[in-house]
Structures are given as structure tokens and as C-alpha cells.
Design brief:
49% helix, mainly alpha, two-stranded antiparallel ribbon, 8 strands
């Protein structure tokens, strides 16, 4: 957060250049996806009485607002999140579906978020997964760069391991979020769960 948070966009830079003392300022999709998933793990496993839990919640909620602002009208997210001219990327889309769905389940996000999660899932089914379960549109493992073009040019690979498992996990979390909304459990969030500025 101290090194990578882009306050104006509520997203994370992919890399921090230690020798230069500055971040690249490029919000790479899967890099942000890892942070989103990890924050949900922290919030799930860290006792809520721990003072660090509230700080993690505040960061998660602010971050998810930045993520939602970047969702493409088709439902997916882009390889470079704030660059809609970059390609639609499968692994980050699945990670955000998973992370937002967990937020709904636990009351960290409102039930109105479910429409964005559903849109993301339907887009994955339309653009990323075929009838026999092959997965497309997953960026290969990445190095880092200061130029966004580097990320634009990274190729995708069919059935790349960065995407197959996370899509299955996203499906499970979406089912749980739907059930939470149906039961009304996620709407019972306390005031402490109201989004706050980071």
C-alpha cells in the first residue's frame, strides 16, 4: 500500500522501482487481482478484533471501488485496468469476480455489487471458456516495465495455469454470493463495514 497504491484511481501499480524510489504507475490487471484475492484472505483469516483488520477492510473497500470503475461494459476487465484500449484479460476478471463475490458474502460489499459480479461471470463464459472447458485470454507470466505497451504486447495462452484454477474458484464464490443475497445474510452488515476513505 505504501509503495504501490495509486490514490487517484484506487488501484495498485504493478511494480515499485527501488533504485529510483518510484512506482511505475501501471495498474496491471493480474497484479491487482492477486492483491484483491489476498485482501479477502486477510479479512477472512485475521480476527476482526485485530486493529489491522479494520485497516484492511478500508483498503479493500476503496480498492474495490477502483476496480468496479474499470469494469468494461462487456463485464470483463482489461490487461491494463485503466486502459480500455488494452485487451480483455481472463485471469484478472476471474480474480475480481472472486474477490467481489467474497465481499458480498461477508457484508464487506453491498448486495448491489452482485450485478457487476454476474456481468463478469457471464463475460468469462462468453469470451474466455468454450463448451469443453478450455480457457482463453490469460496473459502469460509477466516481467515488468515502465511503458504500458509492454503489457499490451504480452501474449495470451490457452489453458494457462494463471487462469484455469481461478475461474473454478470464482464460480464457487459466485454461487456462495448468490445464496447470501437470497438469504439476506450479506445485507446485515454493521456500520463498521461502511466503505471509508483509505
Amino acid at each position: 500500500r505504501q509503495r504501490l497504491w495509486i490514490e487517484r484511481e484506487r488501484l495498485f501499480s504493478h511494480i515499485y522501482f527501488v533504485d529510483e524510489g518510484q512506482m511505475s504507475g501501471i495498474p496491471w490487471g493480474r497484479g491487482n487481482g492477486w492483491i484483491a484475492v489476498t485482501l479477502t484472505e486477510v479479512l477472512t483469516l485475521l480476527p476482526s478484533e485485530d486493529p489491522r483488520w479494520r485497516a484492511a477492510l478500508s483498503l479493500y473497500q476503496a480498492f474495490m471501488q477502483g476496480v468496479l470503475a474499470c469494469q468494461d461494459p462487456c463485464g470483463m476487465w482489461h490487461q491494463v485496468l485503466n486502459r480500455p484500449d488494452s485487451y480483455l484479460e481472463t485471469s484478472c476478471t476471474a480474480m475480481f469476480v472472486l474477490s467481489l463475490a467474497r465481499g458480498i458474502q461477508h457484508g464487506w460489499m453491498g448486495t448491489e455489487t452482485l450485478s457487476a459480479v454476474e456481468a463478469g461471470w457471464q463475460a468469462l463464459l462468453q469470451y474466455s471458456v468454450d463448451d469443453i472447458g478450455d480457457v482463453y485470454g490469460v496473459c502469460l507470466g509477466s516481467g515488468c516495465a515502465k511503458d504500458p505497451k509492454y503489457y499490451f504486447d504480452l501474449p495470451t495462452k490457452k489453458n494457462d495455469d494463471h487462469g484455469t484454477g481461478i475461474i473454478l474458484m470464482a464460480a464457487v464464490e459466485l454461487l456462495k454470493a448468490r445464496r447470501a443475497c437470497e438469504s439476506g445474510a450479506s445485507s446485515q452488515a454493521k456500520a463498521v463495514l461502511t466503505p471509508q476513505a483509505v
